[in-house]
Amino acid sequence: DALVHNQSLQAVISRAYACIGLPIIALDVSFKLLGYAFPRPFSFMYWEQIAAEGQAADVIDALGSLNYHEIMYSNRKSTVFDWGPAKNYPQVDSPIMQGDSLVGYVGIGIENQQDIDTLLEANDLLADALAISLRDSARDADAADAQRRAAENLLVLEQVPGDVKAQITATYPPPYVFAVLASEGPKISTMQYVRSILCSQENAALSALNKNRYLYILFYQVGKSVDLAYIKTLLQEIAQKYSFSGGVSDFFSDAADIAVHRMQSMLAMTVGRERAEGQSVFLFRECYGDIVCYSAMKSIGPAVCTLPAVEKLAGIDAADGTEYLATLRAYLNAFQNRAAAAKTLGIHKNTALYRIRRIEGILGLDLSDPACAGRLELGLKFYAFAHCGKQERTV
């Protein structure tokens, strides 16, 4: 009835509360308070805090409640939660969906266990009603919001239409940097939350979810305050916190090149994950050499790219338990500095020197020769990617 009379979302919640007399709270995907109905002060301090502050981001992170929201989204219907923070405050919670899009959450407190089935049905009905109310509110959004949503939709396209390009450039000026965050499994609620964090005026970013696994982000007007280092640090913190991986493109100024730089960010993420440990987010410009090797391996195959010298050392390592490949890699990465290589390997510098001399004898090469060192360094990269490929195929 509230919807028919075009009443506000809060009015819908208030009228539902008048019917059932149980606490209700609704949040959007960024955990901003959409509306609530419960007497204040309320016994559950976190709900009281949410009502007072108008948002729940700090509370959600502190309690790990994203676990609730992932389950809600997976079930696509009201679910009983009586564990974790809800242990002494059981509730039924449901995602608010518009088609396949997640737009928020709504929950009702449980006071009588005998009412659970009725409350599950009531909360599903309320979630559907709030979805309609939010959809109608979006229709009345101002032109700036509509333009932003249209621009975000372009992030997943293979080609940006010419007339739209001019509009994007005028509203969201260059320079640009494209970034991607990805999860190994479905983390829609978490992705939506991260999206709300990233797309603030402070960060000057547009974003879009693709295939419920990839979060595409376009940083615009990148300059002194928001540069590559800032972007990488920001995404690295988020990726480590929520178990994501990510890649960041190089700078560009033409909005028509969004698809090209999206590929850059995807390649940086893919290659970085295979080659680096201890990192979650990778810059295209830092991974460029590895990307060239990775692309060559994929296009012409490992057999063509194999360097016999590296394969020979790998064979000796496998047969005799030596560590020639690791020593060669550390030595070359240290710019032929024996002491630095020894420190990386955790061995005495004399041991490093002995191994290097043995490698030179086995290969008949002079490792101090820059041209020779360059070829071996490239060969090690090809070998690493070929080795990763074999492991993947075995798995």
Describe the model:
- With 395 residues, the chain is an alpha+beta fold.
- It is 55% helix and 14% strand.
- The protein has 17 helices and ten strands.
- The strands form two sheets. Strands 2-1-5-4-3 form a five-stranded antiparallel β-sheet, sandwiched between helices. The protein has a five-stranded mixed β-sheet with strand order 7-8-6-9-10.
- Helix 14 (324-333) packs across helix 16 (349-363).
- The longest helix is centred in the C-terminal third of the chain and has 25 residues, at 370-394.
- Mean pLDDT is 85; it is low at 389-395.
Q: Which features does this protein show?
A:
single chain; 395 residues; alpha+beta; 5-stranded antiparallel sheet; 5-stranded mixed sheet; 17 helices; 10 strands; elongated
**Mean pLDDT score, rounded?**
85
Ends distance: 56 Å
Number of strands: 10
Percent helix, as a range, is 55-70%
Structural class: alpha+beta
Largest sheet: 5 strands, antiparallel
Radius of gyration: 27 Å
- What is the count of DSSP helices, taking H or I runs of 4+ residues? 17
Shape: elongated
Question: Within the largest sheet, what's the order of strands?
Answer: 2-1-5-4-3
Task: Spell out the helices and strands N to C.
Answer: HEEHHHEEEHHHEHEEHEHEHHHHHHH
Strand content: 5-15%
- Low-confidence parts lasting 5 or more residues at pLDDT below 50? 389-395
Oligomer state equals single chain
